[in-house]
Amino acid sequence: FPQVNPTTGKVFKEYSEMDEQEVSTIVSRSNEAFQEWRRVPTVERVARIGAVAEGLRARADEVAALMCQEMGKPVSQGKAEVLKCAHLVDWYAEHGAGFLKDVDYPTLPGFKKSYVSYQPLGVILSIMPWNFPMWQVMRMSVPTLMAGNAVLLKHAPNCFGSAAVCEELLQSLPGVPQGLFRSLVIDVPQISNVLEHPLVQGVALTGSEGAGRIIGAKAGGLLKKAVVELGGSDAYAILADADLDAAAAAVVNARILNGGQVCVAPKRAIVEKSVKAAFEQKVVEKLAQKKYGVDFGPLVHSKARQDVAKQVADTQAAGAKVLAGGVDAPIPDGETGGAFFAPTVLTDVKPGMVAFDNEIFGPVIAIIEADSEAHAIELANRSPYGLGGAVFTQDLEKGERIAKSEIECGMCFVNDFVRSDPSLPFGGVKNSGLGRECAAFGMLEFVNVKTICVK
Known catalytic residue: 166? Predict the structure, then answer.
């Protein structure tokens, strides 16, 4: 697995794939670690895993530089990601034991007590993507480990360095059994073998809709628990009474973060007709203030750049206009890896165009005109995805009503862009996935909800 720096196009490290026997041995050892770990009292498990926050903070600069090499993320954004992981660990260290406490239920007639106990399932396979090499891993693994499970990580093939750091951090913790968290250096064909292993009890995947369908179907056939967090074509409804300056800032900031390679970024800005021109102007002005290497970097590799360029070109060919950036925008000095795509604004995008119907995984803002508030809602929901969404209006009661009852998505914000936080459940509906991460919901995805009655 060559590790290619997207900025330079040069290989900076290589990893060799583990063979089937080595993987099978790791799975067996992971189960042995689980059997030991599950018997550690919950409060102690939570505290032991909680200690990883210190290691994350200590290595933040180092890991940020590594992520920049692996997938092009600006170093400042990489450091913020590592520190966000530490915040997640601290949050679960404070609240996790409470989420895992037994819950009393009405006692059955003739019995002394009835309650539910949250017991771990066992070894869980974690298939994680490259766009947030540390955050995606930690937000799944930390609560899952605290709940008493073991985790086997199959990271994206360009992020095996980040995976190794995660393993080092978690396996160096005092009181954590060796083998409880391991990184598998494997390619796609071996994933099925791991999931089919009788000691593996579930799988969490963050990735594309196609990958989610394959893994979800495979897990379903094996009767194993699956949590899949997939793509999105998030719509932000900018209504006529919105604060356009704030709306434009939110759309631009969220869309260029991480080079636009964010599942929950605003892919579609749906703007009421009366304010569309003013909104467009503000978006272009704010985008012009953003700096390469600080606010955005290259895409993950040259193939990603080619894919985004084709989607933009196809949308243009269908009648959309380019207000900024575009396929032929100049390339910054020092970009020799062929992965750079300039932040781009498309307008007059309509249903049936690529930028409306499909997810563009790059820094492309698609502006769509709506005739009315009702039309904006209808356009927002005209998508097979339902991950995040937002409503911009100065009428907070109206905004909350639309967010709560009208927009079809798993997370909807009023007057700001959608972001993940350990304290709030993260996930979507429709083709955006199954299950939730973060908050209590994320910690309880891979547990046995066990009913206990004592007579």
Answer: no
One-letter amino acid of 233: S
Q: Which of 70, 81, 167, 229 is catalytic?
A: 229
Segment holding 261, helix H or strand E: none
3 state SS of 332: coil
Q: Is 317 left (phi over 0), alpha (psi -120 to 50) or beta?
A: alpha
Q: 112-142 b/e with 16+ CB inside 10 Å = b?
A: eeeeeebebbbbbbbbbbbbbbbbbbbbbbb
292 vs 339: CA distance, rounded Å: 13
* Global pTM exceeds 0.85: yes
pLDDT in tens, 27-54: 999 999 999 999 999 999 999 999 999 9
Q: pLDDT tens-digit profile of 223-277?
A: 999 999 999 999 999 999 999 999 999 999 999 999 999 999 999 999 999 999 9
Q: How far, in Å, are 301, 352, 431 from residue 435 at the CA level?
A: 30, 29, 12
Write down the residue that tokens 């994680």 correspond to: 128
Section 420-438 average pLDDT: 98
In contact, 375 and 324? CB cutoff 8 Å:
no
| 332-352 residue pLDDT tens | 988 889 999 999 999 999 999
Q: How confident is the model at residue 437 (pLDDT cuts 50, 70, 90)?
A: very high
Q: Which entry of 263, 409, 412, 438 is annotated as an active-site residue?
A: 263
Q: Has 229 been annotated as catalytic?
A: yes
Q: Which residue from 312, 262, 335, 250 is spatially nearest to 286, judged by alpha carbons?
A: 250
Place of tokens 């393993």: 167
Cα end-to-end span (Å), the chain:
58
- The Cα–Cα gap between 256 and 414 comes to 20
Burial 421-439 (b: 16+ CB within 10 A, else e): ebeebbbbebbbbbbbbbb
Whole-number Å distance between alpha carbons of 366 and 360 = 10
pLDDT category of residue 95 using cuts at 50, 70 and 90: very high
What is the rounded distance in angstroms from the CA atom of residue 115 to the CA atom of residue 107? 8
Asked whether 205 and 229 are in contact (CB, 8 A), the reply is yes
CB neighbours of 61 closer than 8 A, spacing ≥ 6? 79
Question: Whole-angstrom Cα distance, residue 52 to residue 141?
Answer: 12
Q: Tokens 């009661």 belong to which residue?
A: 397
Of 66, 125, 91, 97, the residue nearest 420 (C-alpha) = 91
Model confidence pLDDT, tens digit, residues 162-172 = 999 999 999 99
